[in-house]
Amino acid sequence: MSERPVSEIRTVACIGAGVIGAGWAAYFLARGLRVRAWDPAPDAADKLRRVIDAAWPALTELGLAEGADPHAITLFPTAAEAVAGAGFVQESAPEDLALKRSLLAELAAAAGPDVVVASSTSGYPMTDMATDAADPSRLVVGHPFNPPYLIPLVEVVGGERTAAWATARAAAFYRHIGKSVIEMDRELPGFIANRLQEAIWREALHMVAAGEATPEEIDRSITDGPGLRWPVHGPCLTFHLAGGEGGMAHMLDHFGPSLKSPWTRLEAPELTPALRDDMVAGAEVSAGGRPMAELVAERDRAVIAVRRAVEAARAAGAGHR
Amino acid sequence: MSERPVSEIRTVACIGAGVIGAGWAAYFLARGLRVRAWDPAPDAADKLRRVIDAAWPALTELGLAEGADPHAITLFPTAAEAVAGAGFVQESAPEDLALKRSLLAELAAAAGPDVVVASSTSGYPMTDMATDAADPSRLVVGHPFNPPYLIPLVEVVGGERTAAWATARAAAFYRHIGKSVIEMDRELPGFIANRLQEAIWREALHMVAAGEATPEEIDRSITDGPGLRWPVHGPCLTFHLAGGEGGMAHMLDHFGPSLKSPWTRLEAPELTPALRDDMVAGAEVSAGGRPMAELVAERDRAVIAVRRAVEAARAAGAGHR
């Protein structure tokens, strides 16, 4: 196990230089870290450079760490060489279980004994990916969202044979570099956010397949609709507000029967008293004790600012054309 | 049918003064319209006033129409009196089918022959709600999102016996007052956005029921994760970008097999060549012919601005405490 604080990590190995791997590299560089990269693609250097250069203005806008250098990255001919000397390893290979298994085994063998190897996998449990590793204790899922240099969320979860210190160290490292971390206590395919996102996506695919809506109607129904609320209040707090002064309790007691309506192809769970109470208590936690009027005011301020932000971002693009 | 342009509509009847009905009233007032309201609750006047007063700063910030007056609203003792003389009727009664049926029949009878009666229903098809109306030709669904004074989306769809002119007139009126309108060509429980939102919500409820995640983890997984992208790019365009230079086609060909993964409790449709092609073509429409680099730049600008907007909105609230 590792006694050294995560603040001493100076170098990260990025294994895989696709959209996610290169996005991670850009983020690590912006936090002032050095990056050692590997990707088998012949044009990996070009792809990395292109993603990092495209991301750098955004990262500069958000604020660079002292000494951040977009060129502090070196591409190595093998994964083992990239991992040598790195204080943390982020694996972002294609989503192929056999590939992940052999690559993670190789990375675990090459990384130092106190170095955590985190996988960007979108949904595989680490227990399934770690089967080939001689020592799987340092293998952890560290699932980011695209683009990793802008979206704060990272979901962290270990496999059955992952050491508790390794999961904790990955979470501590991500928090140290400014990420919003959710540490899950159990493996779940798709983790949390991707399960929710995948539910939307599958309903959308069903609707297109059935001719019920076009992709552009689906997109606009979100961007001009509930999508405007989700950056400030997640689905649970959103429905807490939808209940008016009665909050989540009123919403569930009032709209609960609509869970039986065919509003999506996903069957709802039984709204048991226990589930109702968990949702009500959870909404109170999300609300942080703030009264409804304050939550409504916060949402309103945020939705207005979000609408303006998106309009400005779109107008800036139109101006460039 | 109506020959008069929607710009001549000066007065709207708001039937029901809950969160949605009062929110609609605030929006109509901000657009310079007069509102005639009815709600059977004894404290309806207070509730209306509270919602309108709470919404007015936000509406002022977004820009009021000339002559907009937060007090240009009158509460009537009966629905028929509220509807008399109104140029458009917005029904926002509780989500109870029997109630909707009798109320919509009453509203259709009371409204002038060229006046459209729109229901804010969250999911009932108009065909099911219009069964008691002597003349259902002017009954239309005009489904808003909470809060109706800030979220632009309105889904418009008629029932089997709705006249085409009435659906078109509702859509024209909403567009005239600044709404983002999706006109659906068929009835579908939950319409479009609520089906997508409901899929997330049901998956979230399942996760809480199974102990897989807490409501606050679910909320943060969205606010700090994919929720930051959805105000600018909907689910389809988001996955177009996730495909990198290859876009939606690459995404589907590469991640298509993950549709078979247990990432949500919702079964995916078969990814047939036809569905694949529809999604690829739809993403191109959403992308509006813009190259991937421009879409990525737009998303990055927007996500940064959205993050800042939400942070500022939260800080403003904290400052008030």
UniProtKB/TrEMBL annotation, chains A, B:
Any GO molecular function: NAD+ binding
GO biological process: fatty acid metabolic process
Transmembrane segments: 12-30
Keywords recorded for this protein, A-Z: Membrane, Oxidoreductase, Transmembrane, Transmembrane helix
Pathway: Lipid metabolism; butanoate metabolism
Top-level lineage group: Bacteria
InterPro entries assigned to the protein according to its UniProt record, in alphabetical order: 3-OHacyl-CoA_DH_NAD-bd, 3HC_DH_C, 6-PGluconate_DH-like_C_sf, 6PGD_dom2, NAD(P)-bd_dom_sf
Domain 3-hydroxyacyl-CoA dehydrogenase C-terminal: 190-258
Domain 3-hydroxyacyl-CoA dehydrogenase NAD binding: 11-184
Family, as annotated: Belongs to the 3-hydroxyacyl-CoA dehydrogenase family.
PANTHER family: 3-HYDROXYACYL-COA DEHYDROGENASE FAMILY PROTEIN, 3-HYDROXYBUTYRYL-COA DEHYDROGENASE
Name under which the protein is recorded: Carnitine 3-dehydrogenase
Taxonomy of the source species: Bacteria, Bacillati, Actinomycetota, Actinomycetes, Pseudonocardiales
